[in-house]
Amino acid sequence: MSSEIKNRYSDKELAEFRTLIEEKIEKAQEDLELLKSTYMNDGNNGTDDTSPTFKAFEEGSETMSKEANTQLAIRQEKFIRDLRNALIRIENKTYGICRVTSKLIRKERLVLVPHATLSIEAKNIQK
What we know:
The chain has a single domain, classed as DksA, coiled-coil domain (Four Helix Bundle (Hemerythrin (Met), subunit A)), CATH 1.20.120. The protein is mainly α. 65% of the residues lie in helices and 0% in strands. The chain starts with 10 loop residues before the first helix and ends with a helix. It has helices at residues 11-40, 52-91, 107-112, 120-126.
């Protein structure tokens, strides 16, 4: 029986996806904490006694890196939220079903993008 004909993944397959997603959430939360701790760091790298020109460059660089860190943190929080939503779909046994075509999303895609809600076919239609 090919996966195109099935209308949902088996409980065993859903359990495998749950494990994968839970591991990804754990890693993503660690990465988010790292980003937050970098952002919270006062950024004083001992440049107080160096030339004013270098200090201005340092402050500009610090501002840019704080903005970049903020953007990364926002993206990471969205990724975690998407992964948690995937866990809810597993509970509802709707995980892996394309929200456009209602067909099963290929297992290979879900392993790479476990929070996917669109099949490649549906994603291509949206382009």
